[in-house]
Amino acid sequence: MFERDFIIANERFPKLKYSWHAKSKMWVISGELDICDTVGVYWGTFQIIMLVPRSYPYCVPIVIEKSQIIPRDIDWHISPEGICCLDADHELIAMSQKGININDFITDKVYTYFANQIYKLQGKQYAGAEYAHHTAGVIQYYVERLNMPSAEATLQALKNILCKKGLGRNDKCPCGSGLKLKKCHKASIETIKTFGFSKVQKDIQDIEKYLLPLRKHKID
């Protein structure tokens, strides 16, 4: 399946090639990624490596920038080793559970990421929305992508999911709206379930810790 999908991707990104790394059991995509604007004007080229686990399409590829063009700084959404933060972890996990297509992944996530980096290198802000770091970014994901009304509502929904309490279609939505789940956040709850027990548990712990000083401030 990977080889078939890569042939399609290679038509658009001809400077990329792939090989199978038997020791790590991953496909390794490497080469140059040319970036152009929406009217086809050339912006720049990045040297990249993509590591695609053999569990493809149910996986999240790791993308590494080798050309050292992007500053190695957290504000640029890249690690000191060049590992690129393409999107919120939760969004990527949800995508991997449904199964990705390598052509769509490169087009929608990888290409967009590097185009945004060039845009910022020109002294501008990212063209699209930018996530905050750490727990603030996690909360932002739940509020903006999954339409949770607040961090507190998110926390309650996560707790209900973890203990499987009140999650029937006709039960009240854990967001606190008073509506039945089927008429409120049913799709969002189903997405959250794909994150897995440990991820949901960690989000609960992190959000509670994040909200603690805010709650104390309200009391004071």
Automatic annotation (TrEMBL):
InterPro entries: SEC_C_motif
Pfam families linked: SEC-C
Protein name: SEC-C motif-containing protein
Source species of the chain: Olivibacter domesticus (Pseudosphingobacterium domesticum)
